Amino acid sequence: MKKLLDSMIDYAKKRNVPIIDDPTKQYIISLLKTRKPRYCLEIGSAIWYSSVIIAKEISKWDWTLVSFECSYPSYMKALTNTKNSRLLNMILYFGDFLKFSHQLLPDQIDFLFIDAEKASYLDYYLKCKPFLHDESIILFDDVIKYKQKTAPLIHYLDHHNIPYEHKQLVDDDGVIVIDSNSSFRTG
Ligand SMILES: C[S@@+](CC[C@H](N)C(=O)[O-])C[C@H]1O[C@@H](n2cnc3c(N)ncnc32)[C@H](O)[C@@H]1O
Question: What confidence tens digit (pLDDT) does each residue in 7-48 have?
C-alpha cells in the first residue's frame, strides 16, 4: 500500500494534481480511528489518494466509502489506483456531485470529506444535509488558503449557529471540522 500511495504522490506532483498534505492525512486517519464512522462520503476524489487512505482505514471495521469526481482523466487514473489498492469497499462515481440524484447517496452520512470546488462548499454541504445526523463528522479541506471562496459556507455556519472548528494543519492552510462530539464551539 505504501508503494501505491508513494506512486500517487509522484504522479500528483508531476501532473499538478492537488492532493491532501501529510498533516491532513494524519488528521483524517486519527479522526477515523477514534470515531469509526460507517457510511463515508467524499466529494472530489481526484486520483483517489485521500480516498484510498479513508477506505483503507474504514475497511478495518468493514465500512464503505462513496466518492465523486468530475474530471475524466482523474477518474480514469482513480480507477487504476482502485484496482491496484485491492480495496473492495470503495464506490467511485464520475460526474458533477451537484448533478447527481439524491438516490445515489447513502441513507446516512457518518463522515463527509469535502475537497472539490472551493466556491461550491456550501452547495455540497446543503445537498448532503438531509443525510447528516447529530453524530456526523464533516471535514472541509483548504478553507484557510481559499478563505474568500469558502466565505459563503462560513457565513452559513455562523448564521445558523452550527459549531465548527478551524484547524490550521500547515503554515498557510487547514480544515474546518464540524463534530458534535468535540468540545469546541464556533470560532
Ligand atoms: C483538491 S482535488 C481532490 C484531492 C483529493 N481529495 C485528494 O486529496 O487526493 C479536487 C477535485 O475535485 C474535483 N471536483 C471539482 N468539482 C467537483 C464536483 N462538482 N463534483 C465532483 N468532483 C469535483 C476536481 O476535478 C478535482 O479533481
Answer: 999 999 999 999 999 999 999 999 999 999 999 999 999 999
The CATH architecture that domain 2-179 belongs to is: 3-Layer(aba) Sandwich (3.40)
Rounded-to-integer distance, Cα 57 and Cα 85, Å: 13
**Which residues form ligand 1's pocket by a CB distance below 6 Å?**
18-20, 43-46, 49-50, 68-71, 74, 96-98, 115-117, 120
**Nearest ligand 1 atom, CA 74:** 27
Cβ–Cβ < 8 Å for 77, 147: no
Neighbours of 172 (CB within 10 A): 8
pTM: 0.95
Domain residue ranges in the chain = 2-179
Across the range 128-155, mean pLDDT stands at 95
- Report the separation in Å between the CA atom of 120 and the middle of ligand 1, taken as the mean of its atom positions: 11
